[in-house]
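Action item from last week, closing it out:
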Amino acid sequence: MRQAGHSVAVDPWGTVLGAAGATEETVTVDLDMARVAGIRSELPVPRDRVLGVEAPERPRIR
């Protein structure tokens, strides 16, 4: 089986931080930790989660 490649590292706003080509390779990106902290304050997912509440059951697709 052949895979497509072209993996990307993308920030939460859709900005591509790094991209690979069609061949096997390693992509390394630098993260600005101040920017990470800013994004985490704008997307407060951990703050808004409700612990102990289970997700509703979904019907199984057969």
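Closing note: The two ends are 26 Å apart (CA to CA).
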